Every structure is written in structure tokens, then in C-alpha cells.
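tool_call: predict_structure(chain=1)
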Amino acid sequence: MRRALDALYDGAAALAALFMVALLAAVLASILGRQLGFHIRGTDAYAGYMMAAAGFLALAQTLKRGEHIRVTLLLQALSPRARHAFEVWALLAASLLSALVAYYSLRLAWQSHLFNDVSTGNDATPLWLPQLGMALGTTILAIAFVDELVLEWRGRRAATAGSEALRNE
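tool_result:
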């Protein structure tokens, strides 16, 4: 199960990286188009769709690597038992909230598909296509939060490094 979950997180991160490369290509095509006098319809909209997909798909891997912003000032002052209880409470709340966001993201994409909702731009993209990136990313994030909750509950969760202050800019 651990390998499957890690593969899911790594796959989502790889997909996010592909969307970032596609975003770069869309922006470069738009810049070149302006310089050379041609226009590709919808490049701005597609760049936005790719940026959103990349951001949402990278959330789970970012969580698993311990790169999400955390307020550790309170945690450092707690005893190990209280810290564990607080972590379980926080991960439970995050799991519930992320599951709620995932549910409504999936519902939005499904309703956009049912209603044949299209973008208002001249490319008229079916909106469920770009909404899939958000729905998939939030679903994988919810799975990652539940994974972290189970690991914390069992006492197997990797401790976050104390070098967080070193990464601040």
C-alpha cells in the first residue's frame, strides 16, 4: 500500500511538472506570436488552465515532503503527548476539509460536463477539462492527508525537520 500511495503522489507531481512545461510552451508561443505577427487563440486561457492544474496536482507531494507552511511555534512548546494529540486533531480537520474541497471540485467538473459548460473565450473550451486538474489534485491531496493522519495515529509519521527556519526567505 505504501508503494502505491507514493507512486500516486509521485505521479501527480510528475503530471504537475508536465503541466509546467506545457505552461512554458504556451507562454513562449504567445510571446513568439506577438513578435512574429501571428496569434494562437486561447493561449492565455490555456496557460491559466495549465497553471491551475500544476498547482493542484503538486499539493499532495508538497504535503508528503513536509514543504507546506506550518506554524510550529505552538507545537514546539507542547509535550510529546500533547503534540501528538494536536497533530491528530489538525490532520483530522485537514482531512475533512480537503475531502470536502475534493468532493465539490469533482462535483463542479461533473456538472460542467453535464451542462456542456464552455469557457467564455473565443476558444470555447469545455470547462470540465481544465477542472479535472483541480478535481484530481484535491482528491489526491485528501488521500495524502488521510495517509498522514493514519501515520500520525499509529506513531509512524516522519517528524518534520527542525530546519524550517533555514528555508524561509
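agent: The chain is about 75% helix and 0% strand. Proceeding to next step.
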